[in-house]
Each structure stands twice: as C-alpha cells, then as structure tokens.
Automatic annotation (TrEMBL):
Record keyword Nucleotide-binding present: yes
Signal peptide from the UniProt entry: none
Name of the protein: AMP-binding protein
GO molecular function per UniProt: ATP binding; CoA-ligase activity; fatty acid ligase activity; fatty-acyl-CoA synthase activity
Family: Belongs to the ATP-dependent AMP-binding enzyme family.
Domain AMP-binding enzyme C-terminal per the UniProt entry, residue ranges: 440-518
Keyword Transmembrane: no
Alphabetical list of InterPro entries matching this protein: AMP-bd_C, AMP-bd_C_sf, AMP-binding_CS, AMP-dep_synth/lig_dom, ANL_N_sf, Mitochondrial_ACSM
Pfam families assigned: AMP-binding, AMP-binding_C
PANTHER family xrefs: ACYL-COA SYNTHETASE MEDIUM CHAIN FAMILY MEMBER 3, ACYL-COENZYME A SYNTHETASE
Organism: Falsiroseomonas algicola
Length: 533
C-alpha cells in the first residue's frame, strides 16, 4: 500500500503469544549465516565487530552465570554502562532468564544511583570501574544488591562467564511479562520507574520505520549519540536495528563533538541516525558539513520542535528532510513525520504513527475538535505503552483518564492530522534532549547545609532549549555569592548527575508562593528569563 491514509487503515499489529526480547533481537538471526550486529568504536579508534552468533553465545553464558548466582525470573538487574557490547549482553542475559533489566545513565552520581537501585530492589549490577567506584560509596544503603560485576576488574564479568555453559533456552515469556524498567522524571518527588513488557519493541517498530524513511533498506547502518540508558538510544535505535538485522555503531562519546560525529558517520558508513535537536544545533555550527562525506539516508529527531530553519539546513547539509518524532518513556514513538509519505510541515511534530490512536483531550477528558489546544493522549491498549510505574499504582492511575494515557503535553491537531506541539502542562524541563524533573534536584538540594528552600526551573537557552536554574533561599547567616553557587553546581554534578546540574543559580530572600503554599514557578521563570538569554 502507498500513502499515509492507506497505511493507517491497513495496519495490524503482529504481537506473538510467546514474546521474548532476547529472541526478538538476537536469536532470530543466530540460526542463519554470520551477520554483523555491532560496530564498536574503541577509544584508540580501533573497531570491535560483533555478530549475532557471538552475542547469542556470550549472552547465554552470562544468563547461566546469573542463574548460578541465584538470580531468576522477576529479579532486577542494573546496567550501568555506556554504548558497548557488554551493555547489550547484560540486557540479553537478563531477558533470557525472565529477569528485568534496569538501564542506568553513566553520568548519574551516587545519590541518583542509590535511589534507583533501592527503588527497584536490584539484586545485581553490571558496570565498569568508574561505576563500581560510585557503587562502593553507597553499597551499605542497598541491602538487596547482592552482586556487582565489574567488566574492568574486581568481580570481573569476563573471567566469571568464561567457564559458564553456553547452552540455555530462553524462558517462555509473553507480551505483557515485565522486561525493562526505565526511570523517568516528573515535576514532583522522586523519579518513577516505567515498567515495560516484552511487547514494547514490537510497539516501537512502526515509530522507528516511519521517521527513518521505511527502515530498513539495503545497506542501512544506524547510530545515535543518545545513551542506551535512555529509551531514545535503547528502543529508538539499538533494539529495532537488531530486530531488523541492521548493524549499529556503538561509541562511548563522553561529550558530543560535532566534527568527530560527522567524520564517524562517514567512516563507518552510517546511513540512519537519531540526532537530538541539541546535537543538530551543534552540527549546524560546523562549516560545510558535506565535506566529511557522510552519506545519510535518514535522520530522525525528537524531544523538541526543530522549526523551519533547521529543516532547511538539514536539506542543504545532508540532502534529506529531518523527520521529527514524539513520545515519552511511558508511551514512545506515537507521532512522527515521514517526508516519503507526506509533506513535513514546519512547526508540526508529525502525524499519528500507524497502529496508535492519538487524540487531543480537554480538561474533562473529552476529545476536542480539530484546531483546539489540549492534552496529547494515546488510547489503551497499545503495545508500546508501559505496564505501569514500578510499585506506584496511584501514580499509574493518575497517568490515565479512562482508556486514554495522558502525556501532559499540550498540542493542536489539524484537519490533516498534523500535530503541533505547544508545551508542557507541568514543570518538566527539556534540556539538551533530556527531560528533567525539578523534584529530584530540589529534593537533593534541600539536604545542602546552606539551603533553606529551593525551586528548580527551566529558562530559555539558545543551544539546549532550556537550561536548569536553581533558585535558592540561603539559610540565615550564609553568604550568597559565586562561591556558594559553584559549590551547589559541583555538588549536583558529582553526587546526583552531570546532566542535572544547574547552569544558573539565583539567590532570593523568599520563594513566591500561592495561598496554599505552592511555589509559583511561572513567576520565577518570568523574573529570571531575561538573565538566561
């Protein structure tokens, strides 16, 4: 079929009764001829190539190691690693035994890791030397954590799996059996763990295939600078590519370097990329990017609206239209653009992806007429939708209005099904492609000995869309100034997470509040927006 309307009308989900992510992304290709899966770029520029046969062999050995340690179905296994083979192997091994993998961002500090590992009750963690050092500081706060496997030494993963058998049969799991917990930030309180079933990958496929211009095509090769700890790296790139037998470039890039990224995509034959808007803005600053020779077939971007100038730049720099897409950790890739299907409209994030029922709801939960602003909602059941928040049934219930999952994002849908994003209806901060909840940062800073009260807001930023700003009320007798601001920034960056630290710190005598004691964040944003520019 051709045409967007025909694709939507004829779409049917194919979700098998037996569904296991390890079988979906690894074993489906293990029985045939050797096939390339990962192209890992090492620190010295050398390459390490992994095929599906090797991934199957090593992940089965790791699965048997987990079983020998008493880890089994339903147990949570943390994965604190960058883009590398061992990251994928840990996920595969966990899914083989029916365990639940928990990806963790390598820039998380001790406090962020302690909360997430304790909240999910992780019994094991696979990490590297840097991660193991962080865990050693908080190990006494994690009574459930029985095993820490360090791929660099100590309880060395490679040494431990060597004698293990590679004979293993995946446990029988169904689409709704839990497979994965990805933590997401909200506006209040601590992060919540979005629990997904083994069906989540099948639910993602149309939302990957559409913005990546009918992915896969012969010769495709996928890369993203987005960390595999986030849903954008793991389920927008890595797992869909492996499902389709498309090789993925893996690279540990501590800081995005636009010229190196262009060189990498050219040298490694990257044809498909997920590039967050912040990365695109940095690439745009590189003179004549075509000189690097990258031969991209498709670029997808999500998290923020790109605008007409960025779309025109993409056409000039790469000879293609950058397709936007939209989603959340709880329900991802439900709206997307596809220049091969319909004209990309500047300002719009796309149209509903086939297989997903998307509507704009009013405050009463009723579907609004076209052209009226309201909340983006997705109707359940939907295979890409989360099973619920880990151990938070009240928060899960609050995410829904009847059969509709409420995203909390405001938008308008026009008569042609184009959805135009307007903004959040809460205080989540979008910075450099990360969705940042102020609650986690505020809770952390409340423990700082110099802080009496704090509010965290997002302020406009030309590169990052928003920058994190901490508005601090110092305790009596504390001198507010640059030294204290630097100490607060350093504390957040080292103990909580590098991407969460406030790039702007403001000191006030009191925080504006409503009569019921709620912080008036809008007033703070208006007050400090001028200094953010």
């Amino acid at each position: 079929m051709t045409g967007y309307a025909a694709l939507r009308a004829g779409f049917r989900w194919d979700i098998p009764a037996r569904c296991n992510l390890a079988e979906e992304v690894c074993d489906r290709w293990n029985a045939g001829e050797p096939r390339l899966a990962l192209i890992e770029v090492l620190g010295d520029g050398m390459l390490e190539l992994s095929g599906y046969h090797e991934l199957a062999h090593r992940s089965r050995k790791l699965a048997n190691l987990f079983l020998s340690m008493g880890i089994g179905r339903g147990d949570r296994i943390g994965v604190l690693l960058p883009q590398r083979q061992e990251t994928l192997l840990t996920h595969l091994a966990a899914w083989r035994i029916g365990a639940i993998s928990v990806p963790l961002f390598t820039l998380f500090g001790e406090e962020a890791l302690a909360y997430r590992l304790a909240d999910c009750g992780a019994v094991a963690l696979v990490t590297d030397g840097t991660g193991a050092a962080k865990i050693s500081v908080i190990r006494d706060r994690l009574p459930a954590l029985r095993h820490v496997l360090d791929i660099d030494g100590g309880a060395d993963l490679h040494r431990l799996i060597e004698p293990a058998s590679d004979r293993h049969v995946c446990v029988a799991t169904g689409p709704d059996d839990p497979a994965l917990i990805i933590y997401t930030s909200g506006t209040t309180g601590s992060p919540k763990g979005a629990l997904h079933g083994h069906r989540v990958l099948r639910g993602h496929l149309p939302g990957v295939e559409m913005p990546q211009e009918f992915f896969p095509q012969p010769g495709d090769c996928f890369w993203t600078p987005a960390d595999w700890a986030w849903i954008g790296g793991l389920l927008d790139v890595l797992l869909p590519s492996l499902f389709h037998g498309v090789p993925v470039v893996a690279l540990r890039m501590p800081k995005f370097d636009p010229e190196y990224a262009l060189r990498l995509m050219a040298e490694r034959g990257v044809r498909n990329a997920f590039l967050p808007p912040t990365a695109l803005r940095m690439l745009r600053q590189v003179p004549n990017p075509a000189r690097f020779g990258a031969q991209l077939r498709s670029i997808g971007s999500g998290g923020e609206s790109l605008g007409v100038e960025m779309l025109e730049w993409g056409r000039g720099a790469f000879g293609l239209t950058i397709n936007e897409f939209y989603g959340q950790t709880e329900c991802n890739l439900t709206i997307a653009s596809c220049a091969g299907l319909f004209p990309v409209k500047p300002g719009a994030i796309g149209k509903p992806v086939p297989g997903h029922e998307v509507a704009i709801l009013g405050p009463d939960g009723a579907v609004l007429p076209r052209g009226v602003e309201g909340t983006i909602a997705i109707r359940a059941p939907d295979p890409v939708m989360f099973l619920g928040y880990w151990n938070k049934p009240e928060a899960t219930a609050a995410k829904f209005h009847g059969d509709w999952l409420l995203t909390g994002d405001q938008a308008v849908m026009d008569e042609e099904d184009y959805v135009t994003f307007v903004g959040r209806d809460d205080d989540v901060i979008t910075s450099a492609g990360y969705r940042i909840g102020p609650g986690e940062i505020e809770d952390f800073l409340q423990s700082h000995p110099a802080v009496a009260a704090v509010a965290v807001i997002g302020l406009p930023d030309a590169l990052r869309t928003e920058r994190v700003c901490a508005v601090i009320v110092p305790k009596p007798g504390i001198e507010a100034g640059e030294a204290l601001a630097r100490d607060i920034q350093r504390s957040v960056a080292t103990r909580l997470a590098g991407h969460l630290y406030p790039r702007q710190v403001e000191f006030v005598q009191a925080l504006p509040q409503t009569t019921t004691g709620k912080i008036m964040r809008g007033e703070l944003r208006r007050r400090f927006a001028a200094s953010a520019s």
